[in-house]
Each structure stands twice: as structure tokens, then as C-alpha cells.
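Fold it.
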Amino acid sequence: MTIDNQTPGGLSSKINYGDQQTVEKLKVTGFINADDIVFLRVLNTNRALVDLDLSGTRIVAGGGTYGDDPKYKTTDDVLGENMWGDFGYFRKLSLPSVKEYTYWSTFGSTTGKCTLEVDTLIVNGSITEFDMSWLGQSLISNASRYKSIATNLYLPEGLKRLLLQDLQTGSRYPIGKGGRKLEFVTFPSTMEAVETDAISDVNMIVVSYIKEPQNVRNETTNPKYPLTKWKGTIYVPKGTVDKYKESCFGHMTIKEMLDVDSISIDAEMMYLHVGEITNLAATIYPDEAYDKAYSWRSEDENIATVDENGTVTAKAYGRTKIIAEANNGVKDSCDIIVYDKTTGVVMDEKVEINIGENVQLIAKTLPLETSDSFVVWSSNDESVASVDENGVVCGYKQGHCVITATSINGGYTANCTVNVLQPITDIQLDKHEVTVKTGNSVQLKATILPDNADNEQVVWTSDNEDIATVSTDGIVIAKKAGVAMIMCKSEENEGINDVCQVTVIQPVTGIILDKNDVVLSKLGEVVKLIPTIQPEDASNKEVRWSSSKENVCTVSDNGTIVALDDGVSIVIATTVDGGFVAVCTVNVTTLSGIENINISDNEQVDGFYTIDGLRLIKPQKGLNIVKFKNGAIKKILVK
């Protein structure tokens, strides 16, 4: 939890009562005074607070006192007397950024007995000296008066002098009498002197940023005690190993510092449910890096928290990042997605598919939107239909089976009955070409294959309903002359179909001739009859012609009449379609207007001619024109 406290003394109002009872890790920025220090002490000693970061705060004057004595008031930018000794255990304590502190007494107790113990103590600010002697004091007896309150100590840049006293085994007040052993300390690059008192030797791990260690003074506060021999392991900047060998730290195991290049969390992403707890682990690279310490934090503790051991606890639906960060700032992250706990599963209860087809089932977990929808799929009869890990169902044979979706969280289930159908594979019509007269109908029949198809429903259509329509039963009704394509297609698959070409014809209903009576007065005279077929759009307008007396006149295929002899003939026009008849009476007469004579023996004929003036070799049957040499002209009829 992070709190920005811009009103000194108001920190308690920024944290609700429930969080005050449970908060373990707290970062405060802004300003604090004596009232805030007392509040933080309560959270630590009476509640759950064990990780406190005050590096972003300033101590300011104001408020009450942090102890019973009126002298325990806060002063701007000062770690005051006996300010921290009454706190309890901290995994990590990062002190406020200050300009001054009251030396060893800042960790003393207002009640006379120091209860502060810190795994990792981080000192912040622009101080130049830090006194680690008498970090905690007890007035009960001298035997337990001095003790170290920190195991690991981080000192700020700018510090020039460090005083250590009575902090380790071998001191005049052994560690067994109380407190803990200081095992690790950092030396900033600005360090000029290390002062010890009553310590025969120092055995710890030191990370030193001092580049000229030969200039660091190893001093004692009391001449009656010998200079301390520094033992243990010291990590030093690159290229300074020889200098450290010639310094007061020469008795230590000297190792050149390797920076942390990277840190890797063992998971890139994790899915959790509210209340679920899991562990993350991080690895520092290279393995020889001198400072393998790292810290854990969550970008949003309302969604998930993480403790110093990498234990992640899911709090609420949402997404956040868990970050592992080395002391040099190198970091890695793991995406944490938190879902509400699943309370049920829902999906479609029934679905139909054809053999060989696939269908995607969608299963959703409850509560909708905030649960994970992670399910495991199964089929109770994979010979009918199978389902893959993504919920895709494939039908194999006709029948039905049950597909089950089981939630990973909670084991809730939902079932869907899958009916696998035999689809139509072919349609065959009994006719593919048919001719129908207008007004008539014809029944088309469709055969569905295979005969066990589940859906035998078909759709009948005509591509030109002005010419022919088709009913849902395949009955075609002819409307008007023309051609229409009648299609029968599967209701479930339009690609499966068959087609019949329907030719609609308009039958003949009658015939009319443009002439019903014709008189021809010349042999060879020609006249043409023009028939009219009814109705106008009749499909077959072919007519057959005949003459009742072909010696009187003949008629051609196109209705042309030629007069051959006097007499009467009936010319008949008969329709090929329907046999409808129309007649014309043809009267050939050539006798009127010219006298019929016989040629005598004493008359000399100059020549014979047709009535059109064509010269003949000899008279022809029928009417002839005779020209005599005496200039006379007569008409003769040759029988």
C-alpha cells in the first residue's frame, strides 16, 4: 500500500480501519510528525506492519510527542532521540530522508528497553556521520545494554564516517546477551573513516564503493582497545583489488564486484482466482554477482499482493504486474490476471450439425465477464462426434451425443446435446426437358439421396415465372410461350440441386384467310392467300395447303394459287397444330367477253398466243388467242 501524506499528523485518516488491521507492507510519501510516528508504531507493534518505506517522507515539527516525556517532539529533518527503539520487528525498514540524527540515541527507547529488530535497515538522507554504537539500549542491566538491532545495513552516499561498537561476537558485551549480529553493510564511495570501539574483530560481508581504500582511516574511539581487524568478505569496485590489499581491509577476502545484469522471474504470466495463493521465484544473473538481493512489489495491490518471499495473493478481479527488482534497478515482471471464482458454466443446450461438418461451441463461466471461462471439453460418444480443446465439435456419424464443458476452477459443468445429421448428397429429377402447353401443368418428381437423409426438404424455383411457375410440390404450371428453368435444390445446401428445362408452347386456336372467294379469269393467273393464325403468339404457325380440284387450280406451300382451267375448286388451309381449317372458293372462268369459235379449213392462222400475249407453237388446252393472216383475232377454247 502506498499513501501520500501531505498533511502532517493526518496519516491515520488516510488508511481505513480494515487496512490498518492487515497491512503488512506500507510506503509513505510526503510529511510525517510525532503523531504519525506513534500511529506507525501501533501498526507495527500491535498490528501486521513489517515492511515500512519512509524514504520518500520528511520529518517535520508538530503534533504531540512520540514518548511520555515532553522532550520527545519532532524537529524538521532530524531523526530524534529514542524515536525508533519502541518499534518492534521489521523485515525491512527504510528511514525518512533527513539531514541530521541524534547519533546512537535515535534507536534508543523512550521506555528504557529497545524492542526494535530489523532484518534490513536502510538509512537515507544527506547525513555525513552515522553512529551504529549502542543501537539499542536497555537500562535493566549492563549485561544486555548494548545490542545490534539490524542484520543488514545500507548507508547513503555522502556519508563520511561510520562508528561501530559492541555489535558482534567478541565485543565486551557478547551478542548472546541480546540483539542480533550485524552481518552485512554497504560502504558509500564517500567514506573516509571507520571507527570501532571494543570490537576485537569484525566478520561480515561488506559491499564497498570506495575507490581509494588506502585513504580510509581505521580508528578506535578508545586507545586502550586495539584496532579492529576486518574479516569476512568485501566486494570492491573493478580494478581496486590491489588497493584493498594494502588497506585496512587487507585481511578480508577481497572480491571484485560484478553487477547484476538481469533478473528473471520463473513465469511470464499467471492466471489466479480471488483468494488463490501462488509462489514466484526470481534468479539473479550472473551467478557471481556480488549483490543478489532483490525485492518484490505489485503494481496494484488491490488486485494482487506479493510478500518478500515472492508469495502472490490474488485479491480482486483485474490485471497487474508483480515486479522483482535488484538493488541496482534491474527488474523483471510477471503479468498476473485475477478472475473471480467460478460459480457455474453456461452454453447452448442443443446444436445440430451434418456428418463431416464442424461447429464451434462457446462455454462461458459464471460470473460473466469476471470469471476465466477456462473449461475442459469432452464427448460421451466420440464415434458420433468429437470435441477438441477449443470446443470445436466434428460430426462423424448419424446420431446424437453429449458434449460437456467442465470449468477448471470449481469443476462446474454444462452439457450440450449434439445431433449429427445425414445430409442430402444428391437430387435427381425424373425429367430434365419437358414441353407444356400454356394453361397446362406437369408434375416433376425429385429423388433424394441418400434415402436416410435427415432433412429431405427441397426448394423449387423458376428462373422466369412469367413463363412457368412451380409449386412447393414440384407442379409446373405453364403461363406463356417461352423457356423456363425449373430448379429443385436442397433446403440445407443450395449447392445440391437438379434442373429441368420447361418449354411452354401456345397452341393454335384457329385460322383465318384474307380471302374466302377468288375469281380468276385467265389461265395461269396467280393469286396468294395470306393466313392469320390465332392466337397471335401461337407457337406453331405452320400451315398445309391443298386444292380440291388441282385441274382447276393448284396451291403452293406458301398459299400461292395458279389458275389452270375453268371451273371451281376449294383451296384449304389446315394448321399443323390443331388441324384448324380455313377455305377459299376459287372460280376460274375465261369465256366471258370473247366468242368461242371453231377454226375452218379455209382460214389461214398466223399464230397462237396466250391471253398475256406470249406466242405459242400450237394451241394449248384452255383459252388461246388466235391471230389470222387477214388480220382478224379470235379467241378459241381448246378442250
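The helical segments are 17-22, 34-45, 241-245.
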